[in-house]
Amino acid sequence: MRFTPRVPDVTLTPLDEESLVRLLVAAVADADPLEVMPPVDGPDGWTDRRRDAFLAFHRHRTLDPATAVERTWVIDVDGAAAGAARLERHGDDVEAGIWLGRTRRGQGVGKRVMQLLLDAAKQGGAARFVASTTADNHSARSLLDGLGAAMTVNQDEVFAALPLSG
Ligand SMILES: CC(C)(COP(=O)(O)OP(=O)(O)OC[C@H]1O[C@@H](n2cnc3c(N)ncnc32)[C@H](O)[C@@H]1OP(=O)(O)O)[C@@H](O)C(=O)NCCC(=O)NCCS
């Protein structure tokens, strides 16, 4: 008998106060703080200070109209928060970013999310879809390479760019 892996149901939910709380719960359960937010001083792990900083980070960058610089979505996999996706405009470029909880990686979710981000970027009218990662991040590199993006490696940094126009 052949076993066909089930493709999980992947949707993007625009970030708001309700989904931000779900996102924090997912991050605490399934990710290291350094994978999902800028460094915060103090002992390792999800301290109260880091949880507050995580909420403040997303409020500042996405939810507060006075300071927002990007659009963020909660990645829902089979109805439960599993990570976040973002698009940030820089002139004609739109920069994409994704993180998934550890237990959700390697199941095709990132690939599906990248396609959804690409669709959103096209609708936003940017000329180029860009993303960067580190040289040792093989899954992120495969993901970006799979989109047909041109990849530029500069020491530890990898920059991916895909024209959207035409
Ligand atoms: C990078 C990330 C978003 C990829 O999402 P994912 O759901 O794990 O990736 P997918 O399962 O969709 O696989 C995407 C590609 O990477 C490959 N891949 C997946 N895991 C891999 C691994 N551990 N090593 C090498 N390649 C891997 C897959 O085979 C696939 O390539 P293919 O289309 O050529 O078969 C996810 O691993 C993650 O959240 N990592 C931590 C945060 C991060 O590094 N973000 C990157 C910012 S751009």
What is the element layout, followed by pairings?
Blueprint: E1 10-14, H1 17-30, H2 33-36, H3 48-63, E2 70-77, E3 80-90, E4 93-100, H4 109-124, E5 128-134, H5 138-146, E6 150-154, E7 157-163
Parallel strand pairs: 4-5
Antiparallel strand pairs: 1-2, 2-3, 3-4, 5-7, 6-7
Helix pairs in contact: 1-3
Bound molecules: coenzyme A (COA).
Summarize this structure as a short list of keywords or feature phrases.
166 residues, Aminopeptidase, 31% strand, binds coenzyme A
Describe the structure.
- The model has no long low-confidence stretch (mean pLDDT 95).
- The protein has a seven-stranded mixed β-sheet, with helices on both faces.
- It has a single domain, classed as Aminopeptidase (3-Layer(aba) Sandwich).
- The longest helix is centred in the middle third of the chain and has 16 residues, at 48-63.
- Helix 1 (17-30) packs across helix 3 (48-63).
- Helix content is 36%, strand content 31%.
- It is globular, with a radius of gyration of 16 Å.
- It has 166 residues and is of the alpha+beta class.
- It is built from five helices and seven strands.
- It has helices at 17-30, 33-36, 48-63, 109-124, 138-146; strands spanning 10-14, 70-77, 80-90, 93-100, 128-134, 150-154, 157-163.
- Coenzyme A is lined by residues 35, 83, 97-100, 105-111, 131, 133, 137-140, 142-143, 146.
